[in-house]
Specification:
Layout: H1 2-6, H2 11-30, H3 34-59, H4 62-82, H5 90-105, H6 109-140
Helix pairs in contact: 2-3, 2-5, 3-4, 5-6
Length: about 140
C-alpha cells in the first residue's frame, strides 16, 4: 500500500473519518429514534464513501481511480438499499477506519493492507448477513 510506505495519511480521509465518527456517535446516541437514526445513517454512508474515495484519490493511480469510479455507484446503492451498516454497532466501521489510518500513518503497509482487507471482509459479512435475514423473512411471510 503506497500510502503506508510513505506514511502519508490523506487529510481528506481524516475529514471523512471525523464525519464518520460524528455520524456513528449520533446513531448510537439516538438509538431507536427512527428520524434521527435515518439522518445519521445517511451521513455515515456518505462519510464511508468519502473515506474510501479519499484513499483512492491519494494513491494517484488513474487505473485504480477508474475502477473505484465504476464500482462506486454499486457500493452506494448496496449500502443504501441493504443498510448493512445498521446491522452493527455504529462505531464498528469507524474503528475499522481508525485502524486503517493508523497503519498508514505508522508507515506499515502490511498492517494497512490487513486492516483494509479485514474492513472489506466485515462489510461483505454485514451485507451477506442482511441478505440472508431478508430472504429468511420473505420465506416466512
Amino acid at each position: 500500500m503506497a500510502l503506508a510506505r510513505a506514511g502519508t495519511v490523506p487529510p481528506e480521509a481524516v475529514r471523512a473519518q471525523a464525519a464518520m465518527r460524528a455520524a456513528a456517535g449520533d446513531a448510537a446516541q439516538h438509538g431507536s429514534d427512527q428520524g434521527s437514526h435515518a439522518g445519521a445513517f445517511a451521513t455515515q454512508v456518505e462519510a464511508d464513501i468519502a473515506f474510501h474515495s479519499a484513499l483512492v484519490a491519494a494513491v494517484g493511480s488513474r487505473r485504480l481511480a477508474r475502477m473505484h469510479e465504476v464500482i462506486l455507484g454499486e457500493v452506494h446503492l448496496t449500502m443504501g438499499q441493504f443498510q448493512a451498516h445498521r446491522t452493527t454497532n455504529p462505531m464498528n466501521v469507524a474503528h475499522e477506519h481508525d485502524d486503517i489510518l493508523k497503519a498508514i500513518g505508522d508507515g506499515d503497509p502490511e498492517r494497512a493492507q490487513q486492516c483494509l482487507a479485514h474492513h472489506l471482509d466485515q462489510a461483505q459479512g454485514r451485507l451477506l448477513g442482511q441478505l440472508r435475514r431478508e430472504r429468511s423473512e420473505e420465506a416466512h411471510a
